[in-house]
């Protein structure tokens, strides 16, 4: 009985709404037709049946346990290296290296369409593990002497004195009893590796090749229409710096100006042993 009372209320509500619209827009509609239209969805909902039976999904190499346990191979996916084997088309899933959007494979739309907005969201490139994900003591070193992590500030708006291009040079003494946990070496955990930096640079070149050279969408120089955003995780800034340089290479230093000074800084997070002085200090 409760449902029977609700149905006329729905019909009355639909009738009032239709009458209001007919007054606003001068619709010509007869009342009997309105009532019939109001009752029609209710009748369909009451008389319709819903199939609640279970339907087995289509069997594939992913969910068929017989194939999962007995098949061999990786179904075309690659897990054992960053470089694709000969004959493997670009874009094949590679666990070690993310494929880029490239001019060679990009399917260009017809000229009747106009590209108005592009947003690229991707994670970092190759990196070292987080310190929290390592064992308390790893069996080997992990060194990153083939790159530098630059950390410095510089006055802006208005500009002021220029800062030296300084980067961290990690050093841990072999005699230090307070060695950090995890990997010993010169890397930060995490940081983008040299291969990750090179891949980020190539990623920027590929993006520019598609959205500037092929589609004429990106400007030829950096403008306010182009925005790069990073998180508070430093590895996203490391990727962004290389990606931007791949898209818009910085100009070479002018011959008339002196080359920027580059120096190294000891990593302040590396424990440094304190040895007693060889001679007593003078009071």
From TrEMBL:
Region (Disordered): 246-283
Biased composition (Pro residues): 270-283
MF term (GO), any: phosphatase activity
Compositionally biased tracts (Low complexity): 256-269
Signal peptide positions on this chain: none
SUPFAM superfamilies: Phosphoglycerate mutase-like
InterPro entries in the record: His_PPase_superfam, Histidine_acid_phosphatase
Name of this protein: Uncharacterized protein
Native source species: Pseudopithomyces chartarum
Species lineage: Eukaryota, Fungi, Dikarya, Ascomycota, Pezizomycotina
